[in-house]
TrEMBL record, chains A, B:
Enzyme kind, highest EC tier: ligase
Any coiled-coil regions, as ranges: none
Alphabetized UniProt keyword annotations: Aminoacyl-tRNA synthetase, ATP-binding, Cytoplasm, Ligase, Nucleotide-binding, Protein biosynthesis
Superkingdom as given in the UniProt entry: Bacteria
Subunit organization: Homodimer.
Domain description: Consists of three domains: the N-terminal catalytic domain, the anticodon-binding domain and the C-terminal extension.
Similarity remark: Belongs to the class-II aminoacyl-tRNA synthetase family. ProS type 3 subfamily.
Protein name: Proline--tRNA ligase
Enzyme nomenclature, EC number: 6.1.1.15
Localization of this protein: Cytoplasm
CDD domains: ProRS_anticodon_zinc, ProRS_core_arch_euk
GO CC annotation terms, alphabetical: aminoacyl-tRNA synthetase multienzyme complex; cytoplasm
Organism: Prevotella histicola F0411
């Protein structure tokens, strides 16, 4: 159960600059590179509890930036935040048949509510007299407890739409876990909306998909393919699952957010009706939608390189690091005096600036550290810059270094941040687009899919074909994409007429 | 286990204005008034899970305002946010002897990680083959898992201080619960800091106490007594527990936030040492500190009245409600055109304005609703106001209504909000101060304490005396207060020389 890591050596923490970035290269082992980077950049680490991670301050700061922006976007659509219980009565899960099938196998179950001292007094054990009448499940998702609550909130058409979101932790007992991508406990938001009509609920599910896509592309600089899932890949209890699929640098897909049209399934399971304008009772229509700390994984794997994280300026906890290069306190004072107005002006523009004048680390170490942490812009100023009225500017995305005039540096940095945001999005998009292949031949597909990429293929719509592709290649149908035309064609596996044109890929 | 509330009738939701405020009066039954108000003002409700509440959107909006301000104040002291696992290995709890005694009796215990279909297929049951090797506890507080993590983060004096906070849910299996004041699950923040010296840790515990007091008084307008707890009332595992104690309108105390000096207890239990400047290992010194959704209870019980909530402007989700009183669309347009610049100007000042021009509710209903919800300032404008260039202003704290000139209304409202913030703090402080009694006679104390109030008494410092007072009167020693002088005196119960001068009160 417990895997407590051995104590790190004192020296580990004060390693040299070159060691700081010593990690597996992407080309050697992409998967190991990711794991190394998560630890090296101090984003997260494994905890003493199987499959649960500790999100370290720097990783959490990225999550806070994501939360702040998403929360704003949700509220702009009329969604309100609320909080529902962590624990769900076991019987609630059974009420929606598909839902329980999807989640029962990976539930953390609370059976007792008290511990007592063991006989020798040195430990505690479960008190058998404190057994719950009905077991409680740590929420894997909250549709059941929320719809049981909505029953009392919804009476007439005037109570609709009802749109709540909660930011919380959820638990799914995953067997194989990886930091951010798949963990037993993770942080997420889950929106749950109730509507009077089918059309309105379907529209809401799509609206939230677009919010997610917008956020991913404009804030995380992660280009996504929007689409709808096949039946097999749907959320347990949904009639339709919409998804945003991002492509990682190894060509694999990462499902980065989903929005579900739940029909009247949960309303029927929890008996939630409303009186329509004709005073007749009708079942309520539902959606749910969520994104999680998995987005941090998407962010890392889309942009970062062998030198460390590359963060889009809009989501970077530190946007500009400024490092004075000085000998002695006198020179530091002089450089600081010159830089202070720039720091103030950048901050007044809402830009997060870290002025790092610590004298217990060498500039080279600081440079490497900010590179590793993905800080978009690094400025450095030394004695020669003072003389020449210049400043050194390094942009993290391209690692280009320039000596530029000190005059106008504020505007320069402001524009550079915009430029970096656009550039890393464009780079990721170019990569993604270059790895989308139209494919009509299964033999060719099987060979090519090993190297990653999104495959735009015709599918006959049967589960058999879907299962065969997965068995042969580990690839799955990611979605019926909205960005590509639904042309007629022939299923490459069965040879039957196609029902859909889909994106197939290996995925995380 | 389950207590699903019966479905409310359709009419409930569209009750008349007078019914809206129909609830128990404080003078009749203070406790019932509180319960009624929590429900009527749509702050929270009981969930289907014993002792766990649903925090409704309006209640959650108050919590979000509190979070935003506290988070800012924490970060200004150098604290960073992070996230640690929900589940704690059972064995961790036993490591600190006092800690386990304090929390073992009210723990939710996870014993299994899977459900399976029951034989008839209609339900799910715990899968006996999915029993955990070691049970996991839902965190009642996170000292143990965090210090087990800190062990790997702290090596030398250069790693200190380490100051993390997390916003999360915790679970304590309380037998008798009340919304916000005492629930099995609640939301809180818990700060955990590590320091090189005893002095630094003690100072940090006090600094955070002052942050809490400052927040309570300046933002919640809740006056508090700062002090230190007696040994009996200390946090399980602490050497000193600092507290802020607020007085409710029934004279009872509400412990509203605590900050603990933990000494080296957790460092010793989890073997957390650092190398000091002489390269010698030493145990780390610790603090922890937390406030919870209980603060919402403090807020309600300090200021609200028989008409509903009274919220301090700085924490109110809606600060100003503006209601046009119109007949027909034409007049509405005219009023809106007149009000729009005011709305814009107020919002530009950072003031949250709700312009309520809904035509499906009468103005009287809206007035009552905003009163119930504690919106600090209500403006109303009708046809006569248009003619006279006036506007009606109602302040929630005093319920005073005024017709004022429309010119300069923005400044008027801005000043009024400040005035309300100050006024409700002063009112609460006057009430509190009028109910602090010096008392040296136990018979008098026993009689008087029934009516509530804080009693400033001399105490001999023994557990026996403390226990006797509690048994005789249900009152407890709240703290050794910092705001009163530690005069010499005689214990009113034992007649022995006093060790401390303390505040004694009944409490929530």
């Amino acid at each position: 159960m417990l895997g407590i890591s051995p104590k790190r050596k004192e020296t580990d923490k004060y390693i040299m600059a070159k060691e700081l970035k010593h990690m597996t290269k992407r080309a050697e082992n992409y998967s190991q590179w990711y794991n190394d980077l998560v630890v090296k950049a101090e984003l997260a680490e494994q905890s003493a509890v199987r499959g649960c991670m500790v999100i370290k301050p720097y990783g959490y700061a990225i999550w806070e930036k994501m939360q702040a922006q998403l929360d704003k976007m949700f509220k702009e659509t009329g969604v309100q935040n609320a909080y529902f219980p962590l624990l769900i009565p076991k019987s609630f899960l059974s009420r929606e048949a598909e839902h329980v099938k999807g989640f029962a196998k990976e539930c953390a179950v609370v059976t007792h509510y008290r511990l007592k001292a063991s006989e020798d007094g040195n430990a505690v054990e479960v008190d058998p007299n404190a057994k719950l009448e009905e077991e409680l499940i740590i929420r894997p998702t909250s549709e059941t407890i929320i719809w049981n609550t909505y029953k009392n909130w919804i009476h007439s058409w005037r109570d609709l739409p009802l749109m709540c979101n909660q930011w919380c932790n959820v638990m799914r007992w995953e067997m194989r876990t990886r930091p951010f991508l798949r963990t037993s406990e993770f942080l997420w938001q889950e929106g749950h909306t109730a509507h009077a009509t089918r059309e309105e609920a379907e529209k809401e599910a799509q609206t939230m998909l677009h919010v997610y896509a917008d956020f991913a592309e404009k804030w995380l600089a992660v280009p996504v393919v929007q689409g709808v899932k096949s039946e097999t890949e749907r959320f347990a209890g949904a009639l339709d699952t919409y998804t945003i699929e991002a492509m990682m640098q190894d060509g694999k897909a990462l499902q980065s957010g989903t929005s579900h049209f739940l029909g009247q399934n949960f309303a029927k399971s929890f008996d939630v009706t409303y009186l329509n304008k004709d005073n007749k009772p009708e079942y309520v229509w539902a959606t749910s939608w969520g994104v999680s700390t998995r987005l941090i994984g998407a962010l890392i794997m889309t942009h970062s390189d062998d030198n460390g994280l590359v963060l889009p300026p809009k989501i970077a906890p530190i946007q500009v690091a400024i490092i004075p290069i000085f000998k002695g306190e006198e020179q530091l004072k002089e450089i600081t005096a010159k830089l202070q107005p720039v720091i103030d002006q950048l901050r007044a523009l809402g830009i997060t600036v870290k002025y790092d004048d610590a004298d217990n680390k060498r500039p080279g170490f600081k440079f490497a550290d900010y590179e590793l942490k993905g800080v978009p812009v690094r400025l450095a100023m030394g004695g020669r810059d003072l003389e020449n009225n210049t400043i050194e500017v390094m942009r993290r995305d391209t690692l280009e270094k320039d000596s530029v005039s000190f005059d106008g540096i504020v505007d320069y940095v402001k524009n550079l941040l915009d430029d970096i945001q656009n550039n890393i999005f464009q780079k990721a998009k170019d990569f993604r687009d270059a790895h989308i292949y139209e494919c009509e031949n299964y033999e060719e597909f099987k060979e090519k899919v090993k190297d990653g990429g999104f495959f735009l293929c015709h599918w006959d719509g049967t589960e058999e074909t879907e299962a065969k592709i997965k068995e042969d290649t580990q690839a799955t149908i990611r979605c019926v994409p909205f960005m590509f035309e639904q042309t007629p064609g022939t299923d490459m596996v069965s040879g039957k007429p196609a029902k859909y044109r889909v994106i197939i890929a290996r995925s995380y």
